[in-house]
Design a protein that fits this description.
- Four copies of one chain form a homotetramer.
- Chain A has 335 residues and is an alpha/beta fold.
- The first copy, chain A, has two domains: 2-60, Alpha-Beta Plaits; 81-333, Alpha-Beta Barrel (TIM Barrel), CATH 3.20.20.70.
- Chain A is 36% helix and 18% strand.
- Chain A has helices at residues 10-22, 48-54, 106-119, 143-156, 170-176, 190-199, 213-224, 253-260, 269-273, 279-288, 315-333; strands at residues 2-7, 26-32, 35-42, 59-60, 81-82, 88-89, 95-99, 123-125, 159-163, 179-182, 203-206, 231-235, 265-267, 293-297.
- Chains B and C meet through loops of B and loops of C.
């Protein structure tokens, strides 16, 4: 594989894309602070002299990693993703996504939305389509759940993130949600990755609990290679021999990812720990380690939650946590 | 969840199914050596006295595991899956599936089919749709590959197993293949599991490289719960800290699975080791540990393979291996 | 095993110990804020009525964990360990131990001591006896190294922590060091644990890279059961499938340990990551997660270090890190 | 490090050793089928021309691995270890070591010895010094246990393998046992490895449950580098996320070790599985994968065992297992 980059003004782009494609190259436009960068990929036998005729600024890039568009070599400025409600992820300001595991009723999601908004979160999380280990468990309210969540979010001015499992659910999820989530078990569901890539929507990609950091970035590359640069990476714990926590939060993944990619990195302490008592220390640690955001399970009444109640915070505890999070975020901002 | 079983003659089945369903129960028919067993699932508030009116033979079953249809409690005889070419999996006789990682050309798959047939294998494996870590890698020949494989298999009287990744490819794969394979990265792709479940085709389900044995059985349960009892479980290595092998073959999984489920269990030493030199000892170990079959990568010319050449056996080495496998299988048959 | 506790004044202790021992019980004195607590262990057939004659305050304690003296049930106030230079570990104020992997020369350790002191650390670390994977690698300067380290530390008013590997080295290490370190590979070297327990010296016990949190606490119990309550637990990364870091820092271990034991918990980000670039985010994360201290490799000239140069910070970088650590520690103190 | 080998007749050895040592080189004598090979190690600045004066047959060896004496480059014939009772390990014939976890009484060990002898085992295993996770558990009968075991073994013509934990116990263990065992938790207890190395006794080294194969061979190298070539490697399961078995038997370690070292490799299915029901399939798999021997827990009355009863076989089951083992071993011998 040959990788070439070409930086140029907006005017020339359409023309160049056309010519490069006619030379048999795959063309990706990567937005950077210095304007769009055209990334070209092809096989070894491409005649580079032909390409030089099209552009004198084209450069051959040697990659030490198997991913291209996710790498800092192609784009060395952080990717900032701005949502319809004006919230930006990756801009330097910490973003908090919070809400229940599943949408259960209009009242439940309304209460959750109000609570997370009041505490200072900017994005409402909630599941309408739930992946469950058992085929007999509660699998979510589906489209009805999406509608309830949208209503609750709009009232509070929150954006929405929700998971998609089945390719068939992508269109309806796109209609109601601002960010589509790919769950840990689907991190290497390449067919689903391509399909959410094509939507152009911001994608929150959870690290597979079994995936190395390199595989995680390769999974992101699947989405990016569909022309969708709006990918948010989420560390949520990996599988180890330790049984005190559900999974082991790989806190080192935050700085390692930050050193390799321009994509924003957030952390989900709720699923990593599987225990609400550990959310606070893990959330604070994630902020101190440089995360761009957090994904936290908050439920108005955890004891009656249809799933993951054990790992959900009550609104009052979440409010207190947000105060502590802000203190650490402020201390980090002084560095 | 309440689980009840009802054994009855074939004649009564349709009537009973109808009545149980009208009571709000999910009904599954599990074939056993003593005739069909009706398995009923419902929530706690089902009135069991109503059910007793329908059948006096109904029994309440207490489960210690979260899976039902995969468990030995429901069905204590081994499930035997018979393919159109007459080969049976799970019958006590060792079954060998062999062939290349990907179908690359008609000649390549013809050569592979002849070689594996001559050495004594009964099923041809080969990928038409390939899951690859990189979006830029070779992803298989698709439907063209399926056609080539069918042609090669038919000439040799072999059955076919091939992987499906995308729900959209299921119908075409069903048309050409005898067994659909779900790969390790899709072991918890619940949406795909349900869809292959609905086809009724035999399904070869590979263990997720980071899935516990219980999660593996729960993944099988997704397929079974669609009414498809033809599931073959495949141990193919799990992820550990050891780096000498690509994954660590969990040889204990064979007897552990055998103690918990009636489904046949096969082993893939090629993907576990990632190195052809290890295939022989791992294949022999799998047979000695009680596996019902093996899935082995064989390529006419591994050096030029488009993928996984490093872990593929040459035909001559495979023939020698089959002799050794048969010796161990014969020794096991004496026990 | 029967576990009983008896709180009493200092005067009665000697008498009671004597009587309890004569009843065949093992007796441990655990210092708490409410005065010493006598912990008694025996087998089931002890006649509790006999014990009641000795003390009316004795209580039977039901343990849900296999460790006794390390548990919060026996002692619910944090254990504070005070060193000869006046520094306390576990008191609420963050303690930093820093220095080179190995003592290499008087100048090297002098430079290191000055640098870590100036940056604000309170304890000098440095190896005189080094565990090395290879029998042919540098194994430390031995007693000569201890002398150099003591000289350097005394000049700066620092305490000393150093590792012991061989039971034969314990007496000499006790002479020169303030804290004895048990390395990750010896976490379950029960013979060594008992022997350092008998010294009464503060022991820094590193978690085995393969040990669960429960096994880690059981290892501490070996030291405590020799009557030595001065144990500092150190999380330093566990072994997982991820290869970007040498080990995976188990950040959750901090709050989990804090919930189970009264012993202080520190973190070693240097060995966890195996890369100096990751020390800062991991150190800050550890403080935010509630660690009582940090153990950081600092070398005056990492490029020429005889071991672990890759994971050692230069003095200037360490000074900068200490400023950031203090900012996070201050933010934590506001909670 | 420079590594040189020099093959020569027995007569010249003493002279050469003396000269090489005077040049500042470490000298190891490795016995091979072609006579002794002198292995020399030194640092880079050794003047090789000086060495050539001593021997014209000396060769410089390039190593791709960090171990020397354990590697096949130095010695490409299998190491065969012969015990006082005439049994050889590594000779091609399968060797079985069996017996209880701990020696509990003369009668218990007598019964065990008779049972394992009658079933065809050649070596009696049994613990006198037991490593236990808890300081309060049964730690073995010590020297009394050794005496009982020797008596029982001698009556049956069995050799003895027993574990040492504490350097202080080495002399007494050497007096009574034929093979000293280093347990999984001490695999990287380098101080203990050196000390058992100095005894010259055959050493059974168990793989650390979290050690890579390379680290395992480096641990063996510690023993070999003390001049003791009698090391038996024992795979006994590694730590993974799977919880159905106590550890995951790494069956691939057998062929991987066999490809890298001349040392014999045996397998302990009892500790790997932690469940007697799994011993049979794992033992048969180990033989089929090429193991030189097995280490199996057998107890006359598992229900009353002081430790590990759950994973011990009853004599009748062990006898049946030995028949099956022999069938697989015979099938393997035909290859």
């Amino acid at each position: 594989m040959v990788v070439l980059v070409d930086s140029c003004g907006n005017d020339e782009i359409q023309h160049k894309i056309h010519v490069f494609q006619s030379l048999g190259l795959k063309v990706y436009i990567v937005p950077t602070s210095k304007g769009p960068v055209i990334t070209l990929m092809g096989n070894d036998c491409i005649d580079i002299s032909n390409i030089s005729l099209v552009s004198r600024t084209v450069q051959h890039v040697q990659l030490k990693v198997p991913y291209v568009l996710a790498s800092k070599i192609i784009k060395d400025t952080p990717t900032v993703i701005t949502l319809p409600n004006g919230v930006s992820i990756g801009s330097g300001a910490l973003v908090v996504m919070a809400g229940p595991c599943s949408v259960e009723s209009q009242k439940q999601i309304d209460d959750a939305a109000r609570a997370v908004k009041n505490a200072g979160a900017q994005i409402l999380r909630g599941g309408a389509f739930k992946p469950r280990t058992s085929p007999y468990a509660f699998h979510g309210l589906g489209i009805e759940g999406l509608r309830m969540m949208r209503k609750a979010a709009d009232r509070e001015g929150l954006a929405i993130v929700t998971e998609v499992l089945d390719p068939e659910d992508i269109p309806i999820a796109c209609e109601y949600a601002d960010i589509l989530q790919i769950g840990t078990r689907n991190c290497q569901n390449f067919s689903l990755l391509r399909k959410v890539g094509k939507t152009g929507k911001p994608i929150l990609l959870k690290r597979g609990m079994m995936n190395t950091i390199e595989e995680f970035l390769m999974a992101a590359e699947y989405i990016l290679s569909e022309g969708n640069m709006n990918v948010i990476l989420c560390e949520r714990g990996i599988r180890t021999f330790e049984t005190e926590t559900r999974n082991t939060l790989d806190i080192s993944a935050i700085p390692v990812l930050k050193s390799k990619t321009h994509l924003p990195v957030i952390v989900d302490p709720s699923h990593a720990a599987g225990n609400w008592k550990l959310i606070e220390p893990l959330a604070l640690a994630a902020v101190a380690a440089g995360a761009d955001g957090l994904l936290i399970e908050v439920h108005p009444t955890p004891d009656t939650a249809l799933c993951d109640g054990m790992q959900s915070l009550r609104p009052d505890k979440f409010e207190l946590l947000m105060k502590k999070i802000n203190r650490i975020a402020s201390a980090m901002a002084l560095h």
